[in-house]
Amino acid sequence: MSLQATIYLVVGLTFALYIGIAIWSRAGSTSEFYVAGSGVHPVLNGMATGADWMSAASFISMAGLIAGMGYGGSLFLMGWTGGYCLLAMLLAPYLRKFGKYTVPQFVGDRYYSKGASAVAVICLIIASTTYIIGQMTGVGVAFSRFLGVSNATGVFVGMGIVFMYAVFGGMKGITYTQVAQYCVLIVAYTIPAIFISMALTGNPLPQLGLGGDFVGTDMTLLGKVDQVVTDLGFPKYTTATRISTLNMFVYTFSLMIGTAGLPHVIIRFFTVPKVKDARSSAGWALVFIAILYTTAPGVAAMAKLNLHATVNTAVKGGGDLFATEASIKYDERPDWMKRWEVTGLLKFTDKNNDGRIQFYNDKNPPAGAVAAGWNGNELSVNRDIIVLANPEIAQLPNWVIALVAAGGLAAALSTAAGLLLAISSAISHDLLKDMWMPDLSEKGELLAGRIAMASAIVVAGYLGLNPPDFAAGTVAIAFGLAASSIFPALMMGIFNKKMNKEGAICGMAAGIGFTMIYVFAHKGLFFIKGTEFLGLFGGKANFFLGIEPNAIGGIGALVNFGVAYVVSKVTPDPPEHIQHLVESVRVPRGAKAVDGTHIH
Amino acid sequence: MSEDAGKAYWYAVLKLVAVMLVIWFLVSYGAGILFAPALNSIMVGGYPLGFWFSCQGSIYIFVALIFIYAKLMGDLDKKFDVHEE
Predict the structure, then answer these.
(1) Is this model's pTM higher than 0.90 or not?
(2) How far is it, in rounded angstroms, from Cα A449 to Cα A373?
(3) Chain B from 21 to 80: CB within 8 A of any A CB
(4) Which of A5, A20, A176, B11 is deepest in the core (most CB within 10 A)?
(5) What is the pLDDT of residue A450?
(6) Is the ipTM of this complex over 0.90?
């Protein structure tokens, strides 16, 4: 069977599986929809959370970014796992005791103010929409390869499918569908990694293979990668920091607290049966996430080595990297490169007109390259394609390539749908029904939710055509926005009895405002190209302590904490009953079933 | 629960969380970022140690921390008699 037919078959089968499960275990009522996780074994619940959490950023984009960044890319690995510790220890059990469904509901009740709740809704919408832009970028990459079309067409097809998938509604909330998605996703991620680790190191586990010896030599694999990339003029793989140590530190911090501030993740811990379960369920979720996250660095380093070995035969064979015959002829390039050229995400320009592909760092050209007459790097590979192209680069069987395509789609669709539901319920329920139009009918609420979803998809899709960054980079910005707004408000709500509504509102506004200004100065007003305003700040990128915009949410969170503290000191204390409420939230006993109503 | 017992419980909780978060900080921001260059001169299982902490070790320790925390919190809840019935 041809590769294309195999991809259609595998993707089709996995979709049939999700739909089959959804029909078989349809959620009947709203509360069933929300607490679908409650009757489920904690291990299965962990898998479902894993599917919800791991998106196109984790699956499609992250390993490619790490391959490009080397050691510096570890900030994604630490940042997107370490946040679960904060969730388990600082938020989840207390939010569960509080007994509400959504973040805006908690903020509204704890800060006895609809205004605070409205600010939380706005922060949530900004962060979630940015997150979906990243998903659209990833979905565009997956569909362009899957259908053999341009990247732009891939984004349009993705918009249509995501909309249908999200409007299908309850499907996403059903834990068993997500368990199936997790299984597809993790199998699709690990199988090619095992194949490749086996081929390169003889050790089937990529976690150990990455530390193993490169086959046929007594050199470690990492040593080999270090040697190849430094010979070609790139920074040393195992020590290349991301811009600076400070930037890496703040970036990691931003991703960690962003994890603990994203509404679609938090909601899963609102709805576990007991406070006790809220603590351990974060652990189970992290177990299943860690399987992918500890595999990813192996995938990254090995894909990098294989990519260089594909275009330069001296990488694996040994010998002179700069010998004429070492660089492969463009006409004899492997089929996978031709397939990716169609999407426009992989490009070759023959700068020295020798018909061969020279792939190296021309900003720091090695002496050998200059001597050999190399006239600039000739191959550009979009980092977002690395994971999807990885099995093709390693010449794995067709069914593995097809499986990876299905896994990427599962990851992107499940998360995009989850976020769209969070946006739609925030707008239709928390904003419209609770604040502006209390007598909105259930039907009207549903319609408003769908319109909100459709608008979010159109906006995210449009911006996804000219994305602000690679998929994982855009998602990192979304985490920064959540980190600078939601997390501090939740944490202070639990750990600082005296935090009042004035403090919380000013803190959220200052935190997200600071973060947005910094990000938009670099990436354009609301990510629209051409509207960058770095000029206002001296025109130099990363002007604040050399911190990149993707990482600035970490500083935004500190601004939030600081402003909130100062404002709360000069304004009246929260009412007595709120302070008692906070005290009761801190104790597990007396936890009631979750309900969606407000206390005032 | 009396006010004193409530305070004692909350103090114990904060102490436990603080210990956990110190370890959390040391393995990621410490070993994985700030001290990574120094640790990289030690090789473990083919990995430079700082690099290993940043892309493997910290994640394993995060998982362990959450389960240890959950267990110790369960014990605390029982000790102060505030656990769920």
Answers:
(1) yes
(2) 60
(3) 21, 24, 28-29, 32-34, 36-37, 40, 44-48, 51-52, 54-56, 58-60, 62-63, 65-67, 69-70, 73-74, 77
(4) A176
(5) 83
(6) yes
